[in-house]
Task: inverse folding
């Protein structure tokens, strides 16, 4: 540890000397900071168009149009909150989040425990290699694979027709859409999701297993009393992240399939913003929906983190 | 840190003496589940590859997708590489991926190094500035207005700049940089080396693995870019491969091919579609195995320290 890390020493070095010493570091940080300023913080501030009757034709560039557009207070939000389509998209989003918490969230944990019990290192790393792969596919590819396998002209339908059965088309059925999107998410990310749990499993002290085995605990009791408590901090952390992100269920996945199953099932908050702002040009209204989502999201993540602290877990960030 | 973890992750591949022998039923269930999981990934890939290499006759016999190959017919690939929309899209995607990854790595590595020294001038506030992006959401509408306002509509930069810096990747690299023994850097500093020189000569050679993993993350992101292209690219000649994949395979539009001699028999549409899927997957599938073994280390380190 160098002395520089001690805060007491730090304050004794005068500002000019620190500037002379650290200017190369500042210069290196600058380009990245600028990119974030322009493409992250500027749009974050730009959310104020939610309070405007933004007219893209009020000027030659978006900036001029912004300056030339009328401020209308909360009118966009009033329209938004009285729009049935908006509440439908909120409802769809929350249902999908809830559904995936039950049917997706536990799967990587189960798969990680299963993988961890495979004794052969080579077999285990082969399985890992295969199941991580879909994480790197784009949503266009994932949806393509599902259409080719399960769609009306896909492999499953083809085999069923050959067997003399009536094929069904799960890809265009709005009633089963929630199952479909969950299956797609599972296919894409269940393997990737195991990484963090495998890491947590490897930090559990093997003596605990040995001692409980000697004390007569069966494998299921060891799973319940040693493995799951060992995974608890990671599970809580990921639950918090998921809850804080409850209003995001993915974007591309839904835009890609919205036409096939219809708006009623596939409209989520993000696609609502896209279709009501970018596609139709009602920017103020769409921005209001986006700002609503961002505000609720921020509250959710702060609340979930608070809850984790109350439960005695570390959470995502601590007050230090 | 990373060394400790790596050794911990390697489990002994023998069953400890105190553990009971698995029951046959348990073993069978385990094997079945794992086989199903692996097949769920491999069967679609296999089917797509085999169909893309099948002749019209084989496809007609199978009634669609082909699972059992009968001979190899590469005409679908000849067609899509002969020029026209798919070839163009592949060039665009390659360009975006290479340029984007280079820009991203440059920005991220520089910033990660700049932020790797606690106690340096402005360290705390700058770090806060970067990490705050996790909590503040830019919003689709204002992002769209900013990018188009900068005149990036129909420019390939619109696929690169908005996603150029991933703070998550930055945190991963920064954690790695901080794990390098400070004495090494201090001695170089005493010898009169500047920060950039230290970064290039000492830090980067020690960080090849993490740079490779982060580079792969960026590259995959750029290769997969679809939504930004939907937002910002209207010019058909600048569509990246994912947009073409979507229009050909999901929306059923027929691609155009310019380079084929007049009168050439067209390969079956399904084979062409599947060939487009294969070329969209191929770069990922090829690069992936080389870098896969570094994932666990890189990702975990980031997760624990971040």
Result:
């Amino acid at each position: 540890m160098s002395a520089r890390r001690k805060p007491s020493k730090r304050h004794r070095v005068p500002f000019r000397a620190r500037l002379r010493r650290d200017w190369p570091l500042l210069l290196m940080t600058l380009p990245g900071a600028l990119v974030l300023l322009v493409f992250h913080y500027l749009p974050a501030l730009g959310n104020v168009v939610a309070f405007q009757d933004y007219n893209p034709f009020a000027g030659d560039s978006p900036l001029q149009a912004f300056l030339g557009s009328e401020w209308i207070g909360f009118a966009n939000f009033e329209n938004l909150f009285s729009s049935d389509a908006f509440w439908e998209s909120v409802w769809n989003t929350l249902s999908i989040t809830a559904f995936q918490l039950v049917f997706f969230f536990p799967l990587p944990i189960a798969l990680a425990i299963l993988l961890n019990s495979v004794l052969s290192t080579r077999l285990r790393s082969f399985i890992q290699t295969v199941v991580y792969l879909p994480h790197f596919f784009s949503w266009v590819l994932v949806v393509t694979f599902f259409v080719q396998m399960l769609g009306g002209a896909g492999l499953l339908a083809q085999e069923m027709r050959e067997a003399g059965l009536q094929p069904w088309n799960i890809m265009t059925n709005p009633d089963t859409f929630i199952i479909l999107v969950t299956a797609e998410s599972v296919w894409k990310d269940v393997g990737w999701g195991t990484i963090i749990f495998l890491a947590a499993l490897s930090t559990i002290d093997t003596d605990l297993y040995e001692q409980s085995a000697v004390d007569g605990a069966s494998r299921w009791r060891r799973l319940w009393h040693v493995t799951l408590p060992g995974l608890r901090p990671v599970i809580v952390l990921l639950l918090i992240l998921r809850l804080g992100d409850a209003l995001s269920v993915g974007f591309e996945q839904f835009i890609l399939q919205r036409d096939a199953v219809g708006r009623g099932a596939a409209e989520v908050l993000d696609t609502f913003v896209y279709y009501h702002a970018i596609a139709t040009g009602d920017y103020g209204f769409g921005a209001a929906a986006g700002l609503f989502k961002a505000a609720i999201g921020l509250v959710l993540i702060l609340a979930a983190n608070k809850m984790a602290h109350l439960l005695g877990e570390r959470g995502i960030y601590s007050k230090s | 840190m990373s060394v400790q973890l790596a050794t911990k992750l390697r489990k002994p591949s023998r069953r400890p003496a105190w553990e009971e022998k698995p029951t046959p039923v348990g073993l069978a269930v385990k094997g079945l589940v794992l086989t199903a999981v692996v097949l769920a990934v491999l069967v679609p890939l296999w089917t797509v590859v085999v169909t893309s290499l099948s002749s019209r006759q084989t496809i007609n016999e199978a009634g669609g997708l082909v699972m059992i190959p009968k001979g190899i017919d590469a005409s679908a690939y000849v067609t899509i590489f002969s020029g026209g929309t798919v070839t163009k899209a592949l060039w665009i995607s390659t360009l975006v991926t290479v340029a984007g990854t280079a820009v991203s790595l440059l920005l991220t590595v520089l910033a990660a190094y700049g932020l790797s020294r606690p106690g340096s001038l402005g360290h705390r506030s700058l770090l806060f500035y970067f990490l705050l992006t996790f909590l503040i959401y830019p919003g689709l509408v204002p992002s769209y207005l900013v990018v188009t306002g900068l005149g990036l509509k129909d420019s390939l930069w619109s696929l690169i700049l908005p996603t150029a810096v991933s703070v998550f990747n930055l945190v991963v690299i920064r954690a790695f940089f901080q794990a390098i023994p400070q004495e090494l850097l201090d001695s170089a500093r005493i010898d009169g080396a500047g920060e950039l020189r230290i970064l290039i000569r000492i830090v980067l050679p020690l960080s090849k693995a993490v740079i490779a993993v982060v580079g792969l993350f960026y590259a995959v992101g750029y290769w997969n870019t679809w939504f930004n292209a939907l937002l910002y690219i209207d010019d058909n000649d600048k569509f990246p491969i994912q947009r073409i994949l979507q229009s050909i395979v999901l929306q059923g539009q027929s691609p155009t091919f310019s380079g084929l001699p007049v009168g050439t028999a067209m390969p079956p549409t399904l084979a062409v579609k599947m060939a487009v899927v294969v070329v969209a997957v191929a770069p990922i599938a090829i690069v992936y195995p080389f870098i896969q073994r570094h994932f666990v280390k890189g990702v975990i380190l980031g997760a624990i320290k971040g």
Observations:
- Chain B has two domains: 21-73, 74-305.
- Confidence is low (pLDDT under 50) at residues 1-8, 302-306 of chain B.
- Residues 52 and 270 of chain B are 7 Å apart (CA to CA).
- The longest helix of chain B spans residues 269-305.
